[in-house]
Each structure stands twice: as C-alpha cells, then as structure tokens.
Amino acid sequence: MTGVLNGLTRIVSGFFDLLVAPLAGHPAWAMLVVSVFSAVWALLLFKAVTPQKKLADGRDRLFGHIFEMGLYQDHLSVLGSIQRDLAKANLRYMMMTLPALLALTLPMVLTLAQLDSRFSRRPLHPGETAVFSVRLNSDANGRLKDFRLVVPDGVIIEAGPVRDQRDGAIAWRLRGDKDGEYLLQIMLDGRAVADRILPVGEGLPRVNEHNRVGPFAEVMAPGARSLKSDDPIGGMTLHLPERSTSYLGLEMNWLVAFMLFSLLGGLVLKDVLKVSL
Question: Fewer Cβ within 10 Å of end Cβ, the chain: N or C?
Fold first, then answer.
C-alpha cells in the first residue's frame, strides 16, 4: 500500500511540476491557477459521484422548510413539526453528499501536500544560510562523533557540527553561494547513510523541512525522501525560510489563499459545469 501511495505521489508531483512551471516566478498567479484547476476537478468529481437530480430536490426541500419556519414562527406546534422535517431533510442531503466527500479526500490530501511543499517554504537565496540538523536513532547515539556531513562545491559549512549527546542530534549551519540543488550526504564509516537536497534559487520547487520515518512520510512531504526505520538516522530537518506571497498587496497564508480562490472559482464555475451542490 505504501508503495502505491508513494508512486501516486510521484505522479501527482510530476503533474504539479508541469502545472506551475510556466508561473514559477509568479507564486500568486500560480496559486490562482492551481486553485481554479482544483475547483474544476473537485466539481466534476462531485458531479460524478452524487445523484444530481435528487441532490437538487433535497436542497430545494431544505430551503422550503427554512422559508416555512419564517412564515410560521408564531405557531409553536407547527414550528416544531417544520424543524423535525428540516432535520430529516438535512440528514438526507448529507447522506447524498457523503460519497463525494469520501471520493474527494485522497486527491485533496495529495493536492494540499503539493501546495504545502511549494508555498509554505522557499529555497535559499544565494548567500543565505540555513540550519541542517539530523536526529539519530537510539541505537546509533553511541556513535554520535562518527557521523559527518559532506557538501558539494557551492555550499559552505559556516558552523558545526554541534552535537547534542543527550538527544542524539547533530546540527550544521550551511550557506548556498549560487543557484542549484545540492546533495548533502551524511556519512558513517565511509558510506552515505542518508542524503538531502539543499535548494538554492527561485521558483516553486518541492521543498520540505523534514525527512521522517513512516509509511506516509513521502505522501505528506512530497519534496522530502522518507527514511527507513532501520537507518541510523531517525529524522532530518532543513530549516528553510518561510515563503511570503502577496496577493494584490495583501499577504496571505497559502492555505487561506487556496481556500479563498478555490471557493470563488467553484461558485463561478458550478453553473458552467452544471453541478448542483
């Protein structure tokens, strides 16, 4: 199952690479395009898995009961009956939309993971620094001093290693001098036991702070390779800068922007796509 999810994540990552590539230098426009695209596929999927005619009838019934409550608000016995019918109609409506909510879960999780990896953090700019830390598994703590970091040309180790014997952690401060993707390697006994990409430059590449162990590590962080449970490294963190994106002069968190643009896109396009909500 893990292999299937990781394979699906790589396919989705490749698609998003193509989708945002033309607007890599304009994050706000890229977010708008991705949001509208997400609204379109979500609407079409919702339409495909819900009984649209029954859904429209159920929605009309809901509004009808709400209007009834306004008309008979001074008649308590009638109002109680209307509220009961409203609750039943609301439950039927929710049951009809449940298959769509289930069908939307996985693609939406994959989409949000892609957006988080591109819009939450950004690569270093040339000359900027970042702290890179690794956490050892408990059985490797005794060899804390044997681990070392190998960096390629273009990356400078400004400080470190700083070793924390109690927590089994090692940290370095790194500087990237020019654009590129640089392979950082954690070495033990002359072999690389873990590696990590240090991104330097612009654009919207997949970048994540953490490499973790677990079956869903790559799914939730598509820009970071997962670690194996039997590796001496139990986790890696690259403290990248937060991405700041302005939308018409207003800075917004990527998730707020996505929710706003996709909601507006859905409301505008639902009639065009003939989708009943």
Answer: N
